[in-house]
Design goal:
Helices cover about 40% and strands about 20% of the residues. It is an alpha/beta fold. The chain has a five-stranded mixed sheet, sandwiched between helices. The protein has a five-stranded mixed sheet with strand order 8-7-6-9-10, with helices on both faces.
């Protein structure tokens, strides 16, 4: 490292977005994402199509990220990539690229846990934005994961609670499908909920011990309710779409916050963060503000572009691992399942 600054190339390819970012110390110089629209017509992500699209996208996206950052590839000190969790075919593309780039440039590579990345997105420098103090709690909500993480240090985390079935994002998408929305339906529920009454309809909430979540019962409750009402009035969903969306969204958010409030109170931790793709949901963000003011929490949500899957969060995690000398070698293999607290972090 001839220069005084640490420059890391981050690669994220865990699902259907190919992303590359350049990080200089704690500042993101570029963060590019190539989205895949091919899955919309299938009503969900098709793993085989996703990995093919990653193969087409990865070199142009990395090339653009380097150019946009205003650096040369020779300036890069290390490459950080998502090892897992995620779709194996998609992860293989990112891992193979990282191995080749590391060999070609003679630089170390760092294998990052995607879920740790979501948490550490809070430490990307943003103008005038405060950062949480350790220990803090992070509610990580995405299409594939829902967990409450106790964050003791940058690389010392413990999952206190997680979903025993569907993730919150999955619950939104499945409910959206029942309402006749196209995939991905979560953002459409959010959009329609803004004009609806969240107390119009009541859906069942699970009674799960401890800090774990469950969302599969909610989906069943919505399904039976809609079947019953559409028998009486075939136009029921169309007539009540906004209220249905608002009520479903409120139920999901209530389930999440019931547990988050409990953990915060039990451990007496007041720095509360939200991360992951579903943290873009306006209802969730609003509830965090409300509960924060009510309970004296300091609340944190990363910038929108750092909430969804992105390489900036992989690069910042790579930086903390680089400083601890946590590098991978050429034998590293991606893992579809990779929980926080296992492996190098």
């Amino acid at each position: 490292m001839a220069h005084n600054e640490l420059i890391i190339l981050g690669i994220e390819s865990s699902c259907d977005d190919t992303s590359a970012a350049i990080l200089k110390n704690n500042t993101i110089l570029s963060n590019l994402i190539a989205r895949q629209d091919v899955h919309n017509e299938y009503g969900g992500v098709v793993p085989e199509l996703a990995s093919r699209a990653h193969q087409q996208n990865i070199i142009p996206v990395v090339d653009m990220a380097i150019k946009k950052a205003g650096i040369k590839k020779e300036d890069i000190d290390a490459i950080a990539f998502t090892k897992g969790p995620g779709l194996l075919g998609s992860l293989i593309v990112g891992t193979s690229f990282a191995k080749s780039f590391s060999l070609a440039m003679g630089i170390p590579m760092i294998d990052v846990n995607h879920m740790v990345g979501h948490v550490l997105a809070h430490f990307i420098d943003e103008d005038g934005k405060d950062k949480p103090n350790f220990p803090f709690l992070c509610l990580t909500v995405s299409g594939g994961h829902t967990q409450i993480v106790l964050v003791k240090d940058y690389l010392d985390m413990e999952v206190l609670g997680s979903t025993i079935d569907d993730a919150a994002g999955e619950a939104f998408d499945k409910a959206a499908k029942l309402l006749g929305f196209p995939y991905p339906g979560g953002p459409l529920i959010d959009k329609h909920s803004k004009n609806g009454n969240p107390d119009a309809f009541t859906f069942s909430k699970p009674r799960i011990e401890g800090y774990n979540f469950s969302f599969s019962g909610l989906k069943t409750s919505i399904l039976y309710f809609l079947e019953k009402e559409t028998k009486k009035d075939p136009e029921f969903i169309v007539k009540h779409r906004d209220d249905l969306c608002a009520s479903i969204q409120k139920t999901v958010i209530d389930i999440l916050f019931d547990k988050l409030i409990k953990v915060s109170s039990d451990l007496n931790i007041k720095d509360i963060c939200i991360a992951g793709g579903v943290s873009a949901n306006s209802g969730l963000r609003a509830e965090l503000q409300i509960q924060g003011e009510k309970r004296g929490w300091r609340t944190f949500i990363p910038k929108f572009e750092f909430c969804t899957d992105n390489a900036a969060m992989i690069a910042i995690t790579g930086k903390y691992m680089f400083e601890k000398g946590l590098f991978a070698d050429q034998t590293v293999a991606p893992m579809a399942r990779f929980s926080i607290g296992s492996g190098s972090v």
